[in-house]
Amino acid sequence: MESGESLKDTGFEIGLYTLADIARNPLTGKIISSSQRIKEIIQAAKLADEAGLDIFGVGEHHRLDYAVSSPQVVLASIAQATKRIKLTSATTVLSTVDPVRLFEDFATLDLISDGRAEIIAGRGAFLDSFPLFGFDINDYDALFEENMELFLKINDSEMISWSGRFRSSLKNAEIAPRPFQNKLPIWVGVSRTPESAAHAGSLGVGLAVVMLGGEPSSFKHLVDLYRLAGMVSEHQNQLNVSVTGHGYIAKTTEQAKDEFYPFYSNYWINLNRQHGNRFKMTREDFEEMTSPETVVFVGSPQQIVEKILYQYELFGHRRFMAQMDIGGIPFKNVARAIELLATEVAPVVRKEISKKQ
Length: 357
Known about the structure:
With about 350 residues, the protein is an alpha/beta fold. Helix content is about 45%, strand content about 15%. Helix 7 packs parallel to helix 8 and helix 11 crosses helix 12. It starts with 6 loop residues before the first helix and ends with a helix.
């Protein structure tokens, strides 16, 4: 794949992302260090690259139960261990980062990786970064919109003048370095908010639909709103949709469910606790969440293929990304699942989608 090719040119992309949560293994009671967690993430990306997957993402959190607060630093390490896989944040909390510094960091990553850097920007599921970096929660949306406006302007021009509410003005400022690509690809991560999907379309950036539960059809209106807004704003030729969500693959669906359930339940217990919720996932809950009709990608390679292809019919998306390393699941399990995704899912999906284009 040549740097700078569009998603339309290169076909359907399949990859992985991680949020780098640090959780105690519910079966052994052991917990790994942040150092080991980051090393395993780099190794997972290397495996994905060698197996022929297309994209690897690293998330951002500012808590002790997550190992990564700076995706660009980890992605730079991954760039040195890989050859062709695209590298993205997943997501960058755009409301609490300086857009100039963000651009410089990812432009540097793009130079290091010979044009493989991307950004998925979002508002973030946690609010920890607001007080940490001196921002007011009441400016939650306004910060995101202003920072997105500034970032896109920087992405377009190497010298800019700009003024806004939340940071110092810029006058004929040189923004360096410039990326290897003509522009850094930027996506907006959206889970349930129609306004955010429409805003992404109006800006002409990519839409990463985060689907963590429910039926795929319940997310279709987000994609429709995104494309409509892009068409109205005359950005329709720039629009791309990505689907992201939780997943795990084993040789059989029952094996996948048996292996993944303790860790997936553990993940949701920890996440709900962080948000002040004491909900615990039973095996019955898990079976319902991972049924063939839902958006959670847990099963045999064939079942995962069927889910991706069904969703392709709904969304016409160009990229699928799965998060598999959650809840303290051992790296050896993740490595096996990566291999199955690359060797038994990706080739079939790409072949079937190529027939439809």
